[in-house]
Amino acid sequence: MNNPAAPAPEAAVKPRHVYLVDGSGYIFRAYHALPPLTRSDGTPTNAVLGFTNMLWKLLEETDADHVAVIFDASRKTFRDEIYKEYKANRTETPEDLIPQFPLIREAVKAFNLPCIEMEGYEADDLIATYADHAVAEGADVTIVSSDKDLMQLIRDGIKMWDPMKNRPIGAAEVQEKFGVSPDKVIDVQALCGDSTDNVPGVRGIGVKTAAELINAYGSLEALLERAGEIKQPKRRETLQENAALARISKQLVTLKHDVPVEQPLSGFAKRGFDPETLFGFLRHNEFRTTLTRVQQKLAERGGVQVVPGAAPRPAPVVKIIKNQVTEKAAPQAHNRENYQLITDEAALAKCIADATYARQVAFDTETNSQQVADAALVGISLSIAPNQGCYIPVGHSGIEGDLLGGGSAAPNQLPLAKVLAMLKPLLEDPAVLKIGHSIKFDVAIMAKHGIKLAPIDDTMLISYVLEGALHAHNLDELASLHLGIDTIKYADVTGTGKAQVTFDKVPLDKARDYAAEDADVTLRLHHTLKPRLVTERLSTVYETIERPLIPVVAAMELAGIKVDINELKRLSNDFGGRCAELEREVHKLAGTEFNIGSPKQLGEILFEKLKLGDGGKKGKTGAYSTGADILEELAVTSGHPLPQKVLDWRQLSKLKSTYTDALQTQISPNTGRVHTSYALAATSTGRLSSNDPNLQNIPIRTEEGRKIRHAFVAEKGHKLISVDYSQIELRLAAEMADIPALKQAFQDNIDIHALTASQVFGVPVEGMDPMVRRRAKAINFGIIYGISPFGLAAQLGIPQAEAKAYIAAYFARFPGIRDYMERTKQIAREQGYVTTLFGRRCHVPGINDKNPARKSFMERAAINAPLQGTAADIIKRAMVRMPEAFAKAKLDARMLLQVHDELVFEAPEAQAEETADLARKVMEGAALPARQISVPLIAEAGIADNWAEAH
């Protein structure tokens, strides 16, 4: 049974199964399903109870790793502009349902699920858009709804589930209801209309007749164009007279797939709920039976202690046993009565004096943007004791009804320059520890104002070192987990959607409580977590790798990298033109026009019209599979050019939309450069993660992908320098598995892939067939990722039995590798984590899972994590040393990017060679003196005017 209260295993995980719950649809179903019910205060709650029970049941039964509940924001949408009578016949909402709408949203939040809605769009449009996003990321999608309007979305990878009837809805069910396949549903709906939503349709045509017509003519447009051919006079005349209404109806029923959604799919990652928050919601609404049921279920799992007749009692401390946070902290006393708003110099001077005397102060900044390069400072908060904190506004303006007087006005606040001048001695005082949560951002903001924030501690990184991928490390989650405190959320003070404001527009009383609480909670987390670094022997990881990296990465983010917008525009135009040309070629080869982006239409062309391959394979929805692997196989085996043309079209389309188009919008207007943000606590192995934009995922294995790196350029008079480690994970595998032959090969600088081929296949290195070396290379890299015979066979295009024999021969020649793998898996099973050479814990949740697929996946992760994690530790150590090395050599170089095993620098042209040489030496020596590694680390450097040519 899935445990909805367990913490998510990854802070940022690639979706595998996404659940999109049609919240609006189930409000009404829940309302009509239960008799009237009220709380003791008279508030009606029958719909809330029905909705809550449905959510609990869903979370109990689903294996989805990403879940969101999606609502209609209001009745008025863009469809009202198309047809003024749209939904005009809807009856008024029942009076006793209206007060239940906000309570239902509270229910969603009590389960710690995203509550998604957008003005101007229906929930169905958001579901369509998110479903496309999920499928594009390779995930399966389940739409929790029975709404016929959503049936048009069903296709390969997307299904529906009716939780009221406990049944799936797929292509067969759609065929039964509408008489057509899902891709023709909108054409049938356009003809027969919808009395519920007042979609006009064509008078006199019902579902059965509409289905017959669409099946006969193929589409609504084809039907309307050929309406004169219809033999029945009345039907022919009706269609001809109502063609415009039919087309309008199609616009009304067609769901939008391109809603500019504000919450990314990654935000739907299932985090698990806080039992006490859910219990509080259930108690408040007097859902006693549901409360008892939930308590008993959680008690059965050992996660919550239950005493009959009493509320569950959480244990007093957090316990972590084999990758699970089994108990949460007892709630700490928490109030906001002593939070202060600082608007005069005397009060600020007292705060500074108190912090200086305390020798440590929690520190946080508020800005009007999360983009550090463009963010303006709005306020600063400080705290030196629990339940105490102050907020110093410096950039609030135009606040409606602010604390200091009604109306819209700039509030009374100290000048920014004065506040910074007074704070600078404290913030740079080496005797006062500044404590922040995700303090990298604050370091960068202060650096923009000429203040070097030091010394520092970061509670996010302390938590990350201690508990890794066991849960997320945002302040709200840690406050709940370790302190039992429900914090004020950012959205609570800024709003959401179109009503959201930037922080400089937040009223000062709300800003004070939110910002001061952030500092207060950060201080308490520091008191709770910092001592554990010593007792759990993790101080070295934090003190020598994570904490010193903060100012280094902050400087990188501030520096950004220059992008040639003209080159991006040229590439976008080039990709766009070539996409159009490829589309024409594909249509010509197919003998007809069709939507290349539609897997269903493409499958029909490939396997029914052209009859390529062995007839193709259909998924559960009845559509053919047309993934890249299928197309690649067809391109080779069929001899027909169309599959390869489609692959080329897909590649160019993605490069254009994801990179060349998007990057143009992400250039800072203040600097003319792109500033990526690095997440320091987002992966299970310690690797940094780039986002907004993600510059680590720019494809470089294809010629077209590499072109994008040409747009990243050096400033005039400067050069870009790329330095990356050569085969670092293979070198670490030889070291950590202690394989003498491989270690010696690296020490002697022998081609490791040729050596492996020679050892495994028994062929001489001299004159070796390149194909044999390629196979050895695939095995070398595959082994450290726990590759299976199936995976190797697919990669090399060979029979699975042959791949299995290769792997067996490899283990026979290097038995130490197998020993390392088995030893590592056993350690992971016993303690729930593996460690890097530098002592970082890489947690592997699910290593003892009863699900064979999940268990196997985590075993492979356990094998690779010490290697990838050690490589991550090493490049971080190199990054930490780089600024001091450049300063000592009097070089004006600066580090711009980190991409896995590569660092990118910018330096004056005259210093480029010296910078490259020094950076290479620092990287090659980064493991020392902490670890004596017998295998040499090799870094290779390149210098050029753009990133592509430098790497």
Automatic annotation (TrEMBL):
GO MF terms held by the record: DNA-directed DNA polymerase activity
Pfam families assigned: 5_3_exonuc, 5_3_exonuc_N, DNA_pol_A, DNA_pol_A_exo1
Keyword Nuclease (UniProt): yes
Gene3D superfamilies xref list: 3.30.70.370, 5' to 3' exonuclease, C-terminal subdomain (1.10.150.20), 5'-nuclease (3.40.50.1010), Ribonuclease H-like superfamily/Ribonuclease H (3.30.420.10), Taq DNA Polymerase, Chain T, domain 4 (1.20.1060.10)
Domain (DNA-directed DNA polymerase family A palm): residue spans on this chain: 705-911
Catalytic activity entry: DNA(n) + a 2'-deoxyribonucleoside 5'-triphosphate = DNA(n+1) + diphosphate
Keywords recorded for this protein, A-Z: DNA damage, DNA repair, DNA replication, DNA-binding, DNA-directed DNA polymerase, Exonuclease, Hydrolase, Nuclease, Nucleotidyltransferase, Transferase
Segments forming domain 5'-3' exonuclease: 13-271
Domain 3'-5' exonuclease: 339-534
EC number in record: 2.7.7.7
Entry-linked InterPro entries: 3'-5'_exonuclease_dom, 5-3_exonucl_a-hlix_arch_N, 5-3_exonuclease, 5-3_exonuclease_C_sf, DNA-dir_DNA_pol_A_CS, DNA-dir_DNA_pol_A_palm_dom, DNA/RNA_pol_sf, DNA_polI_H3TH
Homology family: Belongs to the DNA polymerase type-A family.
Function: In addition to polymerase activity, this DNA polymerase exhibits 3'-5' and 5'-3' exonuclease activity.
Subunit structure, as described in the record: Single-chain monomer with multiple functions.
Listed name of the protein: DNA polymerase I
Upper lineage: Bacteria, Pseudomonadati, Pseudomonadota, Alphaproteobacteria, Rhodospirillales
